Each structure stands twice: as C-alpha cells, then as structure tokens.
Amino acid sequence: MKADNIKNIISDIDHLPYRAILFDGTWGIGKSYAVNEALEANPNVCKISMFGLKDTRQIYHEALFQLALKNNIGGKIGEIANNILDGASKIWDKVGQAKEAVQSIVNEREMFLLLSKEFTSVHIIVIDDLERMSDDINLEDIFGIIEELKQCNYVKVIVIANTDEIQSDKKVVFEKYNEKVIERIYHITERAEKVTWSKMNIHADFVEKFLEIHKVKNLRTLEKAQRFFEDVKLFCNSDMSEQFKEELRLICFAVVVESIENLYYKEIDSDNTDSVEKMTNTIGNMLQHRIGRYLYGIKCSTNLVEMILKYYEEGVLNEEQLEAEYKLFLNSGDKPNYYKSDEEIRSVLPILREKMLEAKSLAELNEFADAYVVWSDVLEENNESVLSEYRNILEEMLEKTVLDGKEEMLSYSYDLFHMSSEKTKRIYQEENKETMKFLIETYVGYLKKTTHGKKAYEYSYKLRNNFDSSYYHDIIIPEIDNLYNKISFPVDNVDEDRYHTCYNIMYVLYHSDAEKFLQYCEKIKEDCDNMSRHRIDVLIEEIVKK
C-alpha cells in the first residue's frame, strides 16, 4: 500500500468500525508525514511519540491536556474538572488547600477517563515511534492503555510503527497481543506518489525529475539531502549562476542519497563471478563511481564532486576552492571541446593541466591528463613536459595507494578510466607495472628478513594470492630465489602465525618450480628436529594435493 492511502483512511476514520489501527512500514517511507498532513486541520488530535517517553503515564497526561482540557477550559468539560476538585475540597476546611491537595492526588488517567465521557465527536490519539520506546517501558502496558482508551467515548487510537525494528523481547509481546488490541493493520510498502514537497522545503520540479530516475523510498533521506544542499549553499557567493547552483543541488542529493540508500550498490556473487567481472563490479561499487550514476551530463568537475563528498563525510569545505571550481564551470562553457576552435581549446589546456596537478584520485588524474594530451595532440602542440608531470604524479599516487593497503587498484586497466590517448595509456601501463614490482619487492624483502608476526603473514598471504594472478605472476618469478632460506620453512621457533606464513611461501616456491622446491625441502630436513621435519612433510602433502 502506498503512503498516499493513509490520508484517505484517516479522512473516513469517523465512520470506520475500528477503534485502534496501526500503520506499519519501514522508516522514512512517509507514514508520520501522511498522518500529520491528514490531521493538520483537526483540533481534536493528541500526538505522542514513544521516542524519549520514560513513563507510560505520560500518555494519559498528554491525552488529558491535549484533548480534554486544551480547548475546553471555559466549557462544560472544564466545569466538570473544577467540580471534581470543588467536591473533594469539602473534606477539608480550606478550599485552596483542598484543591492543591486534590490536584496532587487525582490521577490523570482517571481524570481523562471521566472527562472523555463528555466528548461528542471523535477525538484521535496518535501514538508514533512504537519501535523506539524506551527499554524501561513494557509493551504490554502500552497495549493495556490502548485497550482502555478504545473503551472511552468517541476516542480512536492510531499507532505508527516499523514493526521490523521492534526489539526481539518486545516483538514476542507484540505478536501475542496485537491481534487483540489492534483491530486493523495497514502495511505501508511504498512512498506516497503525491507529496507536498514545499512543506519539506524541497523544490518540487527538481525532486520529481530526480525520483523518476532514482527510486528513493525514504522521505527522510530526501529531507537530509535538501538540508545538506542548504548547508553547502551557504558557501556560495550571491553572484553564482542558477545553473551552477542547480548542478550543486544535484551533486548534494547524489552524495547524500547514495551514501545512505546505496541504490546502485551491486552484490557480488564471488562463487559465480570470474575475476575480471568481479573486479569490474568492485570498481563500480566504489562510492565515487556510484555517485557518478546521478551526474551524467553536468558541467561541474569531478573535483567539485570530491569536495562536496569530503564535506559531507568530514565537514571540511574551502570557500576559495569552491569559488575556483565556479570559475572553471564558467570557463568550460556550454560548447563541448569537440566543437571548439583552436583558440578555445588553447584556453582550456592550462585549466586541464592545473586540474591534473591538483588531482586527488587516480580517476581525476587520468581524466585530466588524458584530456590534455588528446587535445594538445590535435593542436599538434608539444606535451612532453605535461606527460612527464603526469608520470611523476602517477608514480607517487600509485605508490601511496599500495602503501595504504589498496593494492587491488593496481589490477585496474586503463580501460576502466576511459583513457583515449595511446601516450597516457602507455605511461599508465608502465608505471602500474613498476608499482606492482615495487609491491612484490616489498613483500619479498620483508619475508627474506623475517617470517614472524602478523605483518609477515599478511605479506605472505598477498604474495600467494598474487602468484595466481596473471597480473603478478611474471613479476613474482624473478624474486622467488630470495625466499629460499631456512626461515621460509616451519622449523625452529614456530607459532601459528609463522606456520601459516611458511605455508604461503612454500606454496609459491612449489608452484614456481616443484622439483627445485622438493629438493630444497629434503636439504632443509637434514638439519631439523623430528617435529620440524613432520611439519614440513604435512605442509608439502597439503600443497601438492592442491
């Protein structure tokens, strides 16, 4: 059921045979929004959120003051309340003291139950956020109150909840009593088709076009995206164009929506996916790539997108950088580079070089370097100095990537970066291979010195995995001889980590040259104790089987 139907149900609530109903659905789908909108003109409504409520008696307190007394102090119900206090005061000598005493004694529950007898039209009590109730509150008590409220004259109860999120111990109580207390459950599974976006301060035309493409169900996510855009807009100068701000809004919505909803994240079936497809899916699942699905055709740069994402994640945004991005936006013009004149392209080249030098990611670096080389080649201009700069930055960036533990990026082909120039492709391949070699030399150099500890195990594990990869196999083979030493085998001081490290090294040695490996094992065993020989034999048997 769509959330729109909530309004229709509530508009007919006076005539429905139910005294207690439940709107059940996932967070943010618009249940509370639709209920509030349907009841906004109704003065006989009490709204209570269970979130933060510490005592179930507060329900009667809110019902008493929001329904029985709020609009009736001067009327019949107010007179009845005063008569109760006046009658009780006769027990005492002083009326003032009696009223004070009675007010502290008279139970708000009993007062509400008594005063509700004077209701002549339907009064609605909305109990929201049932799943967020305090651990100290007993759900059975809540159901008891709802059941009692149902018996009141002209009182109906609307409960709003996401029952999937009710705590497991309370879920048992819910399953036990809900059929007795709740007379009808409406399951809300789809966001409202028609939403008054202006009440959420969201531009209707923008968000409706956005939702035609990106199927966001959670209204709260859209509210968060709008607030984030309003936050970012504070950094904009008043003279910035509306087109720039429109693209900025789209970037903000893309960053927030994809970060929360993961609409374009694709689960990878590792059992039924080949390595190339798995790597492609892994790249596609990177947040930056997923955000790009929202931004096809915009003029703003990927660098601005990175800036906005960083601000969302870390709260850091530089106004000068934003201003610089705006100038690049203006300079980029409406005309694609393909249709520009020589002079127009010449004016773009320094901008591309500057963006290349300031690139924060491999994707940015390759994008701007490739674009510079492509267009400078068309103009037949010398670009060797820029290619040299590209090579140096690429070398540093790739080395930092592997030192940060992200060596899987070395298996990315230049095709994944949509590079066009054969010059940049060649440099990328050369530097990528050099970085792979640097990585393997790092692993082997460390393992040559020690096979103790977590780091040694981590390096040996990666070395073994990379050995079976076509990207690394030929790079590893020349380094193998460095691992032919006693510490590569489970002898002398052995613990569990070192045992597994030796297994990984022995696996690589065997699969690179089985005959040489087995001969070396026999030589090692000559100087070992019995337990060391036994461990070596066990690992050999296991490795050969595989």
From TrEMBL:
One family name in Pfam for this protein: KAP_NTPase
Name the UniProt record assigns to this protein: KAP NTPase domain-containing protein
Positions of the KAP NTPase domain: 3-182
Domain of life, per lineage: Bacteria
SUPFAM superfamilies, per database record: P-loop containing nucleoside triphosphate hydrolases
